[in-house]
Design a protein that fits this description.
mainly alpha; three-stranded parallel β-sheet; NADP binding; 195 residues
C-alpha cells in the first residue's frame, strides 16, 4: 500500500474485528492474516481470492458466500475444480461469483460476451500461446530456461506442455458450457498472418 501512495498512518494491521471495522469506517486500509476476520467484517461487500491454492480458494469462496459476500475468483485452480458449484451456491445466496478480466480466461470471456451480445453465434473458443506447444516438457527440461528468467521450472513446464492453457480453457468451458472437442486440446503453430 505504501508503494501505491497510502500513508502508513492509514494502514491498520490487526486480527481484531472491532478494530478492523472501525478502521474501515474511518476509510483506512486494513491488513490481516485472518481470513475469518475478513469474511465477518460487515463493511466488506466483495472478497477477491488470488491465493492460487485450490483448497484455500474453495474455503474462502464458500465462507464468503455463506456470509453474503460477492466473490471474485482470480484463483483459476479453484475455479476449474469447484467453480460451477460455487456459482450455483452464490446464485442461491443472492450474491455474485465471478472471474475477472485481465488474465486469459477473463479476456476470452470478454470476447465471447461481446460476440454474443452483438448477435454472433459463437461456434468455438480458444486462445493462443506465446511459446510452441511441447507436450514432452518437464521441469528438468525447462530448468535452464526457467533459471535464466528467474522462474520456477515447474511453472515454465506447465506453460510449454499445455497444462496452464488447459486449466484456463477449462475455466472458460465451465463459464460458457462449451465442451472441449478432444482431451489435451490442440496446439498447432500459427502465425498472425495465418489466422
Amino acid at each position: 500500500y505504501l508503494y501505491a501512495g497510502v500513508k502508513s498512518e492509514h494502514i491498520v494491521e490487526t486480527r481484531d474485528i472491532e478494530k478492523a471495522d472501525r478502521a474501515i469506517r474511518q476509510r483506512n486500509v486494513v491488513i490481516t492474516e485472518d481470513m475469518h476476520l475478513l469474511l465477518a467484517l460487515p463493511n466488506v461487500d466483495v472478497i477477491v481470492d488470488a491465493t492460487g491454492v485450490p483448497s484455500v480458494g474453495a474455503e474462502i469462496a464458500w465462507k464468503a458466500i455463506l456470509n453474503k459476500k460477492h466473490i471474485v475468483m482470480l484463483n483459476v485452480e479453484t475455479d476449474v475444480t469447484v467453480g460451477p458449484l460455487l456459482n450455483k451456491m452464490a446464485a442461491s445466496a443472492g450474491v455474485v461469483y465471478t472471474g475477472s478480466a485481465g488474465d486469459e480466461p477473463g479476456a476470452v470471456m470478454e470476447l465471447y460476451n461481446f460476440a454474443d451480445a452483438i448477435g454472433f453465434e459463437v461456434l468455438a473458443i480458444g486462445k493462443g500461446k506465446n511459446n510452441p506447444l511441447n507436450v514432452q516438457a518437464t521441469p528438468d527440461s525447462t530448468r535452464e530456461l526457467a533459471l535464466s528468467v528467474g522462474a520456477n521450472p515447474k511453472m515454465i513446464a506447465s506453460f510449454q506442455d499445455g497444462t496452464k492453457t488447459m486449466i484456463e480453457m477449462t475455466a472458460v468451458a465451465n463459464a460458457t458450457g462449451f465442451i472441449p472437442d478432444q482431451p489435451g486440446m490442440h496446439g498447432p503453430a500459427a502465425r498472425v498472418d495465418e489466422l
